[in-house]
Structures are given as structure tokens and as C-alpha cells.
Design goal:
The protein is mainly α and 179 residues long. The chain is 73% helix and 0% strand. Helix 2 packs antiparallel against helix 3.
Length: 179
């Protein structure tokens, strides 16, 4: 993924969306210092872009600077009260660095703000899976699946968890959906 984004940046080095995606990819690849350099450049260009503030907060979480990350998130709420994706991003980064409680708190806040979006339940499922709470994970993925059919991600995750628990895969085809 990193190479793909780098190739795209060679073609369009000024493309702000590509640069944001590059920072996101660097964070996911645990190349935190490189991500920091790039997100700081984006921040200097636009200090009120919620996506840049979100990325900056993610970077700060990865640097274990939670208080500074929180100030980025407060600024997001000042700039754009409707932007809530930072909650999922933060949950993912906290989960990435092993801060499960903070990850769960952020994901639950996202779900509280948007109960109809399966992404929040998917994130909770991911967090619970990583922490070994498989029953909670299945419950979260099931809620996600109930919001969107078909939901291949949730189905696959539930099957993977059931396999980890040495349970037979659930036969989704045997369920008759009533509309």
C-alpha cells in the first residue's frame, strides 16, 4: 500500500488527498516519524482542515501524546462539529498501540453519535477481537451485519472468530431474512 501511494505521489506530488492518504499509510506501517514530518507539513498549509487535524491526532496517539491528541480533537469539534471520523481513527490508533480501553471509549462515542453506521460496530469488533473478548466481538460484528446486508466484512470476521474459538462456521445461507 505504501509503494502504491508513493507511486501516485510521484505523479501528483501536490495532491492534498494523496498526501493525507500517505500519512495514513505511514501511520499504519508504524513509520511514525515520517508520518509526523508529513502531517506537520499538511498542518502548516491548513490548520483548520478536520482531516489534517484527525491525522495529526492519530500521529500524536502513536507518539503516546494523548493530551495533545485530545486538543486536536477539540479543535475538530470547533471547526466542524459534524466531522466524527476522528473517533474511529483514534479508536484504530489506540487499538494499534495496545490502548484497548481508550480505543473502546472512542469507538463507543462514534457509535453513540451514529448508531446506524456499521463502521463503529466493526471497529468495536476489531478491538474486542484483539483483546480476546470474542463474545463481545461477535456481538459487535453482528450489530454491524444487522445494519447492512450483505456485510461481507462482518460475516468474515465472525467466521474467523468462531474458527479461533473452535466453533463451526455459522451457516449464513440458512438464515431467511425477512424484509
Amino acid at each position: 500500500a505504501l509503494e502504491t501511494v508513493l507511486d501516485a505521489l510521484e505523479i501528483a506530488p501536490e495532491d492534498k488527498d494523496l498526501r493525507k492518504r500517505y500519512v495514513q499509510t505511514l501511520l499504519s506501517a508504524n513509520q511514525i516519524d515520517a508520518a509526523g514530518t508529513n502531517v506537520k507539513e499538511l498542518y502548516e498549509e491548513d490548520k483548520e482542515d478536520p482531516q489534517v487535524l484527525d491525522l495529526y491526532g492519530q500521529y500524536l496517539i502513536c507518539k503516546d501524546l494523548d493530551d495533545k491528541a485530545e486538543s486536536c480533537f477539540k479543535k475538530i469539534n470547533t471547526v466542524n462539529r459534524n466531522y466524527k471520523d476522528y473517533l474511529l481513527s483514534a479508536a484504530g490508533r489506540y487499538n494499534q498501540i495496545g490502548k484497548t480501553e481508550q480505543a473502546e471509549t472512542m469507538a463507543k462515542e462514534y457509535v453513540a453519535r451514529d448508531m446506524r453506521n456499521p463502521a463503529g460496530y466493526n471497529m468495536l469488533g476489531k478491538i474486542y477481537t484483539k483483546s480476546g473478548d470474542y463474545e463481545q466481538a461477535i456481538e459487535s460484528y453482528d450489530k454491524s451485519r444487522n445494519l447492512r446486508q450483505p456485510n461481507v466484512l462482518a460475516d468474515k470476521q465472525i467466521d474467523a472468530i468462531r474458527a479461533q474459538m473452535n466453533m463451526p462456521p455459522f451457516q449464513w445461507s440458512m438464515i431467511q431474512l425477512s424484509i
